[in-house]
Amino acid sequence: MKSCNTSLRFSALALALSLPSLAFAQRDDAKDLDNLVVTATRTATTADAALAAVEVIDREQLDASSARSLPELLRGRAGITIVNQGGMGKLSTLFLRGTESDHTLFLVDGIRVGSSTSGLTSLQDIPLSQIERIEIVRGPRSSLYGADAIGGVIQVFTRRGAGGEGVHGRGRIAAGSHGLREASAGVDLRSARGGVGVDVAHQSTDGINACTGTYDPDTWQGAGCFIVPGTHLDRDGYRNNSATVRADFAPNESWQFDARAFRTEGHNDYDGDYQDNSDIVQQVVGGSVRWSPSDALALKLTAGRNTDDSENYSGSTFANRYNTTRDSANLQGDFTVAAGHVVTAGFDWLRDRANVVDPWSPFAESRGNRALFAQYQGTFGVHELQLSARRDDNDQFGGHSTGGIAWGMGFGDGWRVTASHATAFKAPSFNELYYPGSSNPNLDPESSRSSELSLARSGDGWHVQANAYQTNVDDLIAWSSTDFMPVNIEEARIRGVELVATTQLAGWDVRGQIGTLDARNLSPGTNHGKRLARRPQRSARLDLDRDIGDWGFGLSGIAEAARWDDVANGLRVGGYGTVDARVSWRFASDWTLQANLVNAFDRDYQTSAWYAQPGREFALSLRWQPD
Fold it and tell me: pTM value?
């Protein structure tokens, strides 16, 4: 504990020294939205005015990035830990602010996504080519969104219609190390009242031989990928084909209609003796109707379905299939009762279904949830206040009430302080409850209490924000290697500090993010005081970008400290640091050539025990994007 306190004091000192000179700003220019975000409050607000730690990654940053996948893009950002099992397309889990990998709610175009069996979202299967922007909200949001939002909410917005009236197209091709091949194209037809559009993309790689774990089939002892020594000495490839289709129409100033569908189909090879490849489908279909007869009133109805489907094989022999669907609908009303005072109220409906086809352990389950929620946002001079409350009625676990309060104050010279407290909960996944031989039907829902204090300062072209938080989780669900099933840990405590900043220095756009974390098991027993698995104590990311005429240059450095890979803190995964470099050349008005060098110093590292990460990789891309 002493080393943790020292680390936290060091981080707090670094934050204090940095406040006068650094700046945080994540700007989203898509469709001239003036930095509007909607995920933090379910209503439109600017990122720098939100009473939460918000980060926006827009299409311009996506185009300039060296990342080739969503997990790569999110890696190293403040409060985010990505655990990947062997490179592109392989299982990737995200830990936000030290909470569990299924404690972050993911939305795609406002539709809740994720597998009801594993409780996870297949981040690795959402291609960057189909994304317009990403909003990251750190901190609990169950009082607005219900279950799963203990650590925060991440919303992905798929590609939007580009430009004004007329026909607008775009395209990109790329090739690189390990047989990387990428191609994407899109077109939009816009009129004064609406438009239609489509984007298609392909991505594939030969992959690497990632698995370093083995087992003895005679003694049943081993670790990692559970392969017999000397077998599966091959590369594990990945293929992804995706499409997004969209349409929107506004017959007048009061009505807006929107519909969109996103689908990705892929094939993934990996190492294992019981199954070693899978065919996957991720699909999100949804739409909305919005009626706003005046500036004081807006009603919106949204409905959609997410399908998560995985067929798994051993060679060409069928092993099992996990098929889940998540149907959701919500009705929301926003009422401006006076200038600077907005009340939001609504109803959410959700139904999860799971069908597991397995020769040894099949099961089929479904579960529904209904909820009422309300929120108040008010401004009183230099003070801002947000109150939210929600009541969920779950078919299996009954009623759960959650709430939140946030306050902010600006006190001159660009300074702003915010404070918040909120509760959240998470229902067990179907696998945790029902999977034969390794489940626990007696699990209770997890619940949490979180408090946060933030200090920010803005200036001309710069902004800095420091966040300190603590989350206590009761009945945390963790895997017990002795009982060979998930169990409720009595209590876990998570403390952390984040610093996010951007500025301009000598012509360079500088974006820095630093995080410290202390996540511990406080339950009685042999693991009391042990660190929660797969959470590094420190992480940092630095992005540098500069344009010189038609040329663009960039560097990204990512570093993470060591972490434990098991609840008993007996399996250590070492820390690492990597550097990515990129250069682009706009050789014609609509054409850009870009070269990316990933892991430039060929660092040998792991984010999950027994699974190697790719070494140095190179990619070259050509992009056509008319202004």
Answer: 0.92
